[in-house]
Amino acid sequence: MAxxxxxLALCQxxxxxxxxxxxxxxxxxxxVVLVLRGEVPESERPRIVDAARTCPVSALEVADS
Amino acid sequence: xxxxxxxxGTSIGGVRTAQGLRAAGYDGEVLLVGEETALPYDKPPxxxxxxxxxxxxxxxxxLTERAAREAGIRLLLxxxxxxxxxxxNTVTLADGERLRYDDVVIAxxxxxxxxxxxxxxxxxxxxxxxxxxxxxVDLRRGGPLVVVGAGFIGAEVAATARGLGAADVTMxxxxxxxxxxxxxxxxxxxxxxxxxxxxxTTRFGVGVEGxxxxxxxxxxxxxxxxxxxxATVVVGIGAxxxxxxxxxxxxxxxxxxxxxxxxxxxxxxxxxAVGDVARWPHPRAGELVRAExxxxxxxxxxxxxxxxxxxxxxxAHAPVEYVWSDQYDHTxxxxxRTGGRLGHLTVPGPDPDRSFAxxxxxxxxxxxxxxxxxxxxxxxxxxxxxxxxxxxxxxxDRVTAARPRTTTGAxx
Lengths: 65, 412
Ligand SMILES: Cc1cc2nc3c(=O)[nH]c(=O)nc-3n(C[C@H](O)[C@H](O)[C@H](O)COP(=O)(O)OP(=O)(O)OC[C@H]3O[C@@H](n4cnc5c(N)ncnc54)[C@H](O)[C@@H]3O)c2cc1C
What we know:
Chain A: Keywords: 3Fe-4S, Electron transport, Iron, Iron-sulfur, Metal-binding, Transport. The structure holds two protein chains of two kinds. Chain A contains two helices and five strands, in the order E-H-E-E-E-H-E.
């Protein structure tokens, strides 16, 4: 499994991650990222890494569990 | 011999192409060449956090020497490209060195449109790290600031300067409203009010005649005869693609490098372009477009990296346009086609005093795009709806229904 982490203090609500993977990321009414699934199977890692890399302020990280 | 990809331009488009090649499993050599000596850096903070002093150069760095090494990317900094020969597959550098390539990626972006009124001391543009650092020094020196051009960069500089405590900030634009290229007049007037409400003097609908040096600073002369004293002037009147080095390449250059839908320079198979310098046929626009937005550069870079690695299954670049801007404590987001002669309807957000969405529609009522203010959830719904041919009324319902999913425990 890969672990999905978000730095809520860095998040600016630019929402690129939600558009890239709305099964893993969402955004709340304050414009802060919500991680819907904190762990994703290895098979999904490349797609979620790509989604994390669309963050303009590098607030997202996909790490090993 | 393993293949070689030479990428010219070391900002977001170039760096993401280099990293994307590795992510796609490209096993050739990757050379990333740029004329700037600074490590590759990101531009959006230049008019925001970096100018405000809340982000550092490290925060802006896109690729360190070490990260480049680990990814197998050869970084050639301080090396400007001066020519491209598509017959011999070589890029020529200013020092005379020639780099042979199998694929070349043009990622030379754009430069600030220079001030037509000269550049006496105190007059700035904001495009590079150096530009932003010099402006930051002058802003800290104090005195009246005049911002010429009420586009995104001008508006952000004015907002940042106010945030730094600049007492006397004036924004000038010959258009009657700010952001006139992307907003309709009614919504644009709200933005004029945003600046006025934050203590910026706005002079819309009047052009600049000249910038003169005065005994103790500068004077900006306006078309209506007004003379605005200034210690610092920022000229934010757009950007021009940096395609001059390709003049003798034989490529079709017309406000950028003209590409096919796979972001390959027309008539070539191994010359690609990404980011602000690329102009390509957008399927939804039905014409050639050039985008000057961060997310476009990132998406196009991924597409080009894929196309170099898997040339037999090329992917077309058909992005949903998206740009954000931060002004004062407001997050402004645009997606799709907005403004112009499109019809629009306004949807109040969760905090009606601060947040709203404006949805745009064509003559048939089909949703084309949106502007949202302090309402990222609405932006997401709108961005997902662009290109789906949904009626604007239906998108409005989706936007109003856009309530947060409650994911107890998801937030620490
Ligand atoms: C102040 C500012 C704020 C911005 N804010 C936002 C924002 O909030 N949201 C948003 O979506 N977008 C924003 N943008 C736009 C975004 O930054 C650009 O779309 C993005 O930088 C484009 O990336 P690029 O790599 O295509 O080109 P560029 O960033 O222009 O980089 C081109 C690189 O190529 C190099 N180069 C040029 N010619 C040569 C040559 N002959 N040889 C070698 N190297 C060369 C340049 O030195 C530069 O490093 C902003 C831009 C600026 C300037």
